[in-house]
Amino acid sequence: MGLKPFLQPIPLLNDNYAWLAGTVQPDGQAELVLFDPGEGAPVDSVMRQHPKWHLVGLFITHRHGDHMGGALQVADQAHVPLYGPEDALGLLEVKGAKAQGQAPLCHVLEDGQKLSLAGMTVEAISTPGHLNQHLCYLVRWPAAMKAAPALISGDTLFSGGCGRVFEGTPARLFHSIKRLKALPDDVLLCPAHEYTAANLAFVQRQMASHPGLTANLDSRAVVKRVDQVKALRAVGQPSVPVALGVEKATNPFLSAPDEATFTQLRHVKDIS
Ligand SMILES: [Zn+2]
Protein backbone atom coordinates (compact mmCIF):
# COMPACT_ATOMS: atom_id res chain seq x y z
CA MET A 1 0.00 0.00 0.00
CA GLY A 2 1.64 3.23 -1.12
CA LEU A 3 -0.88 5.50 0.54
CA LYS A 4 0.58 7.69 3.31
CA PRO A 5 -1.00 9.81 6.05
CA PHE A 6 -1.02 13.57 5.60
CA LEU A 7 -1.32 16.22 8.35
CA GLN A 8 -0.36 19.88 8.00
CA PRO A 9 -1.40 23.26 9.44
CA ILE A 10 -2.22 26.28 7.28
CA PRO A 11 -1.42 29.50 9.19
CA LEU A 12 -4.06 32.21 8.82
CA LEU A 13 -5.28 35.45 10.42
CA ASN A 14 -3.02 36.51 13.34
CA ASP A 15 -2.23 33.22 15.03
CA ASN A 16 -4.82 30.68 13.80
CA TYR A 17 -4.20 27.33 12.17
CA ALA A 18 -6.55 25.52 9.82
CA TRP A 19 -5.54 21.83 9.62
CA LEU A 20 -5.35 19.71 6.48
CA ALA A 21 -5.57 15.94 7.05
CA GLY A 22 -5.97 13.00 4.71
CA THR A 23 -3.94 10.59 2.62
CA VAL A 24 -1.41 11.07 -0.17
CA GLN A 25 -0.44 8.65 -2.97
CA PRO A 26 3.18 8.10 -4.12
CA ASP A 27 2.52 10.35 -7.17
CA GLY A 28 1.53 13.24 -4.88
CA GLN A 29 -2.25 12.99 -5.44
CA ALA A 30 -3.87 13.68 -2.09
CA GLU A 31 -7.42 13.47 -0.75
CA LEU A 32 -7.80 15.88 2.14
CA VAL A 33 -10.28 17.43 4.52
CA LEU A 34 -9.80 20.84 6.10
CA PHE A 35 -10.60 21.82 9.67
CA ASP A 36 -11.51 25.38 10.74
CA PRO A 37 -11.00 27.53 7.63
CA GLY A 38 -11.05 30.88 9.45
CA GLU A 39 -10.02 32.73 6.29
CA GLY A 40 -10.43 31.78 2.62
CA ALA A 41 -7.44 33.40 0.87
CA PRO A 42 -4.57 31.47 2.57
CA VAL A 43 -6.39 28.16 1.93
CA ASP A 44 -6.97 29.13 -1.70
CA SER A 45 -3.30 30.01 -2.12
CA VAL A 46 -2.10 26.67 -0.65
CA MET A 47 -4.52 24.67 -2.83
CA ARG A 48 -3.44 26.57 -5.97
CA GLN A 49 0.21 25.79 -5.20
CA HIS A 50 -0.66 22.08 -4.95
CA PRO A 51 -2.91 21.11 -7.87
CA LYS A 52 -2.69 17.42 -6.89
CA TRP A 53 -4.35 18.07 -3.55
CA HIS A 54 -8.12 17.57 -3.53
CA LEU A 55 -10.45 18.69 -0.77
CA VAL A 56 -13.37 16.36 0.01
CA GLY A 57 -14.85 18.02 3.11
CA LEU A 58 -14.70 20.91 5.55
CA PHE A 59 -15.05 20.53 9.31
CA ILE A 60 -15.87 23.30 11.80
CA THR A 61 -15.11 23.02 15.52
CA HIS A 62 -17.29 25.95 16.66
CA ARG A 63 -19.07 29.06 15.44
CA HIS A 64 -16.42 31.74 16.11
CA GLY A 65 -15.48 33.73 13.01
CA ASP A 66 -11.78 32.92 13.16
CA HIS A 67 -12.72 29.23 12.73
CA MET A 68 -15.27 29.45 9.93
CA GLY A 69 -14.83 32.87 8.29
CA GLY A 70 -13.50 31.26 5.09
CA ALA A 71 -15.80 28.21 5.12
CA LEU A 72 -18.34 29.40 2.55
CA GLN A 73 -15.66 30.56 0.10
CA VAL A 74 -13.69 27.30 0.36
CA ALA A 75 -16.80 25.08 0.25
CA ASP A 76 -18.08 26.93 -2.81
CA GLN A 77 -14.76 26.74 -4.69
CA ALA A 78 -14.04 23.10 -3.83
CA HIS A 79 -17.71 21.94 -4.04
CA VAL A 80 -17.45 20.06 -0.75
CA PRO A 81 -19.86 19.52 2.14
CA LEU A 82 -19.51 21.14 5.56
CA TYR A 83 -19.56 19.21 8.84
CA GLY A 84 -19.84 20.65 12.33
CA PRO A 85 -21.99 21.61 15.30
CA GLU A 86 -25.59 22.69 14.74
CA ASP A 87 -25.24 26.37 15.66
CA ALA A 88 -22.18 26.95 13.44
CA LEU A 89 -23.75 25.25 10.42
CA GLY A 90 -27.03 27.10 10.97
CA LEU A 91 -25.17 30.42 10.69
CA LEU A 92 -23.34 29.26 7.56
CA GLU A 93 -26.57 28.07 5.90
CA VAL A 94 -28.18 31.49 6.42
CA LYS A 95 -25.06 33.37 5.26
CA GLY A 96 -24.60 31.10 2.25
CA ALA A 97 -28.22 31.45 1.16
CA LYS A 98 -27.90 35.24 1.39
CA ALA A 99 -24.51 35.60 -0.33
CA GLN A 100 -24.67 32.83 -2.93
CA GLY A 101 -28.42 32.32 -3.30
CA GLN A 102 -27.98 28.74 -2.17
CA ALA A 103 -27.25 27.19 1.22
CA PRO A 104 -24.10 25.03 1.34
CA LEU A 105 -24.42 21.27 1.88
CA CYS A 106 -24.27 20.91 5.67
CA HIS A 107 -24.15 17.84 7.92
CA VAL A 108 -24.62 18.41 11.64
CA LEU A 109 -22.45 16.03 13.68
CA GLU A 110 -23.24 14.67 17.15
CA ASP A 111 -20.93 13.32 19.84
CA GLY A 112 -19.41 9.99 18.84
CA GLN A 113 -20.41 10.17 15.17
CA LYS A 114 -17.76 8.72 12.84
CA LEU A 115 -17.21 9.45 9.17
CA SER A 116 -14.95 7.65 6.70
CA LEU A 117 -13.42 9.99 4.14
CA ALA A 118 -10.05 10.91 2.58
CA GLY A 119 -8.74 7.44 3.50
CA MET A 120 -9.25 7.92 7.25
CA THR A 121 -11.96 8.10 9.88
CA VAL A 122 -13.00 11.30 11.63
CA GLU A 123 -14.83 10.99 14.96
CA ALA A 124 -16.67 13.93 16.53
CA ILE A 125 -16.13 14.45 20.27
CA SER A 126 -18.46 16.95 21.95
CA THR A 127 -16.41 19.26 24.22
CA PRO A 128 -18.63 22.08 25.54
CA GLY A 129 -17.03 24.76 27.73
CA HIS A 130 -15.43 27.37 25.43
CA LEU A 131 -18.91 27.53 23.85
CA ASN A 132 -21.93 25.32 24.53
CA GLN A 133 -21.46 23.72 21.13
CA HIS A 134 -17.88 22.74 20.37
CA LEU A 135 -16.67 19.62 18.57
CA CYS A 136 -13.15 18.22 18.63
CA TYR A 137 -12.26 15.69 15.94
CA LEU A 138 -10.22 12.52 16.37
CA VAL A 139 -8.62 11.52 13.06
CA ARG A 140 -7.48 7.92 12.64
CA TRP A 141 -5.62 6.42 9.69
CA PRO A 142 -5.76 2.70 8.81
CA ALA A 143 -3.60 0.55 11.13
CA ALA A 144 -1.34 -0.48 8.24
CA MET A 145 -0.13 3.14 7.98
CA LYS A 146 1.21 2.99 11.55
CA ALA A 147 0.37 6.68 12.05
CA ALA A 148 -0.45 8.27 15.40
CA PRO A 149 -4.04 9.60 15.45
CA ALA A 150 -4.54 13.37 15.36
CA LEU A 151 -6.81 15.37 17.67
CA ILE A 152 -8.17 18.55 16.11
CA SER A 153 -8.91 20.44 19.32
CA GLY A 154 -10.19 23.84 18.10
CA ASP A 155 -10.38 26.27 21.04
CA THR A 156 -10.92 23.55 23.69
CA LEU A 157 -7.31 22.55 24.29
CA PHE A 158 -4.12 24.38 23.27
CA SER A 159 -0.53 23.38 23.75
CA GLY A 160 0.25 24.52 27.31
CA GLY A 161 -3.26 25.93 27.85
CA CYS A 162 -6.97 25.70 27.14
CA GLY A 163 -9.77 27.86 25.72
CA ARG A 164 -11.51 30.66 27.60
CA VAL A 165 -14.97 29.95 28.98
CA PHE A 166 -17.44 32.09 27.03
CA GLU A 167 -20.55 29.96 27.66
CA GLY A 168 -21.24 27.63 30.57
CA THR A 169 -18.85 27.05 33.43
CA PRO A 170 -15.18 26.18 33.91
CA ALA A 171 -16.38 22.86 35.40
CA ARG A 172 -18.01 22.00 32.08
CA LEU A 173 -14.77 22.72 30.21
CA PHE A 174 -12.86 20.66 32.80
CA HIS A 175 -15.06 17.63 32.09
CA SER A 176 -14.63 18.08 28.33
CA ILE A 177 -10.86 18.26 28.69
CA LYS A 178 -10.95 15.18 30.96
CA ARG A 179 -12.36 13.22 28.02
CA LEU A 180 -9.44 14.33 25.85
CA LYS A 181 -7.00 13.38 28.62
CA ALA A 182 -8.27 9.79 28.39
CA LEU A 183 -6.90 9.52 24.83
CA PRO A 184 -3.56 7.72 24.33
CA ASP A 185 -0.24 9.57 24.78
CA ASP A 186 0.79 9.21 21.14
CA VAL A 187 -2.23 11.17 19.85
CA LEU A 188 -1.05 14.35 18.12
CA LEU A 189 -2.66 17.50 19.49
CA CYS A 190 -3.57 19.93 16.68
CA PRO A 191 -4.99 23.12 18.25
CA ALA A 192 -6.40 26.11 16.35
CA HIS A 193 -4.00 28.74 17.71
CA GLU A 194 -0.26 29.30 18.03
CA TYR A 195 -0.39 30.30 21.71
CA THR A 196 2.23 27.85 22.98
CA ALA A 197 5.10 30.19 23.94
CA ALA A 198 2.84 32.56 25.91
CA ASN A 199 1.04 29.61 27.52
CA LEU A 200 4.33 28.07 28.67
CA ALA A 201 5.52 31.42 30.07
CA PHE A 202 2.31 31.47 32.16
CA VAL A 203 2.93 27.84 33.23
CA GLN A 204 6.47 28.66 34.41
CA ARG A 205 5.20 31.70 36.37
CA GLN A 206 2.56 29.56 38.10
CA MET A 207 5.09 26.83 38.93
CA ALA A 208 6.98 29.52 40.86
CA SER A 209 4.02 31.39 42.41
CA HIS A 210 1.20 28.77 42.70
CA PRO A 211 2.92 25.38 42.98
CA GLY A 212 -0.35 23.87 44.24
CA LEU A 213 -2.02 24.57 40.89
CA THR A 214 0.75 22.92 38.90
CA ALA A 215 1.63 20.01 41.19
CA ASN A 216 1.08 17.34 38.55
CA LEU A 217 3.51 18.84 36.05
CA ASP A 218 6.94 17.44 35.23
CA SER A 219 9.30 20.44 35.59
CA ARG A 220 12.01 18.89 33.40
CA ALA A 221 9.46 18.17 30.66
CA VAL A 222 8.29 21.82 30.87
CA VAL A 223 11.86 23.14 30.43
CA LYS A 224 12.41 20.74 27.52
CA ARG A 225 9.18 21.82 25.85
CA VAL A 226 10.01 25.54 26.35
CA ASP A 227 13.38 25.01 24.61
CA GLN A 228 11.77 23.03 21.80
CA VAL A 229 9.12 25.69 21.18
CA LYS A 230 11.74 28.48 21.21
CA ALA A 231 13.81 26.63 18.60
CA LEU A 232 10.79 25.95 16.37
CA ARG A 233 9.43 29.51 16.55
CA ALA A 234 12.91 31.00 15.92
CA VAL A 235 12.86 29.42 12.45
CA GLY A 236 9.20 30.26 11.81
CA GLN A 237 7.92 26.71 12.38
CA PRO A 238 4.64 25.90 14.19
CA SER A 239 5.01 24.56 17.75
CA VAL A 240 2.32 21.98 16.99
CA PRO A 241 1.35 19.19 16.51
CA VAL A 242 2.62 17.88 19.84
CA ALA A 243 2.09 14.47 21.44
CA LEU A 244 -0.67 14.39 24.06
CA GLY A 245 1.81 12.60 26.36
CA VAL A 246 4.00 15.73 26.35
CA GLU A 247 0.94 17.88 27.09
CA LYS A 248 -0.07 15.66 30.03
CA ALA A 249 3.34 16.46 31.60
CA THR A 250 3.46 20.18 30.71
CA ASN A 251 -0.10 21.55 30.46
CA PRO A 252 -1.60 22.36 33.90
CA PHE A 253 -5.17 22.50 32.50
CA LEU A 254 -4.82 18.95 31.19
CA SER A 255 -3.13 17.69 34.37
CA ALA A 256 -5.49 19.46 36.84
CA PRO A 257 -6.71 16.74 39.24
CA ASP A 258 -10.14 18.22 39.99
CA GLU A 259 -12.73 20.86 39.07
CA ALA A 260 -11.62 23.24 41.84
CA THR A 261 -7.97 23.32 40.72
CA PHE A 262 -8.99 23.72 37.10
CA THR A 263 -11.43 26.53 37.90
CA GLN A 264 -8.85 28.42 39.95
CA LEU A 265 -6.22 28.00 37.27
CA ARG A 266 -8.61 29.28 34.59
CA HIS A 267 -9.41 32.28 36.83
CA VAL A 268 -5.70 33.09 37.40
CA LYS A 269 -5.10 32.89 33.64
CA ASP A 270 -8.12 35.10 32.84
CA ILE A 271 -6.85 37.92 35.07
CA SER A 272 -3.15 37.55 34.19
ZN1 LIG B 1 -13.35 30.29 19.78
Secondary structure blueprint with pairings:
Blueprint: E1 4-12, E2 16-24, E3 30-35, H1 40-49, E4 53-59, H2 65-68, H3 71-78, E5 82-84, H4 86-100, E6 106-108, E7 114-117, E8 120-126, E9 135-140, E10 150-154, E11 157-158, E12 161-162, H5 170-181, E13 188-191, H6 196-209, H7 219-234, E14 242-243, H8 244-250, H9 252-255, H10 259-271
Parallel strand pairs: 3-4, 4-5, 5-6, 10-13
Antiparallel strand pairs: 1-2, 2-3, 7-8, 8-9, 9-10, 11-12, 13-14
Helix pairs in contact: 5-10, 6-7
What descriptors fit this protein?
272 residues; alpha/beta; Metallo-beta-lactamase, Chain A; 6-stranded mixed beta sheet; 10 helices; globular; binds zinc ion; EC 3.1.2.6; metal ion binding; hydrolase; HAGH_C; Clx_II_MBL
The small-molecule ligands in this entry are: zinc ion
Query: What do we call the CATH topology?
Result: Metallo-beta-lactamase, Chain A
The SSE order reads: EEEHEHHEHEEEEEEEHEHHEHHH
Instruction: Output the radius of gyration.
Output: 18 Å
The CATH C-level class name: Alpha Beta
What's the architecture in CATH terms?
4-Layer Sandwich
**What structural class do helix, strand and pairing data support?**
alpha/beta
Strand order within the widest sheet?
A: 1-2-3-4-5-6
CATH superfamily placement: Ribonuclease Z/Hydroxyacylglutathione hydrolase-like
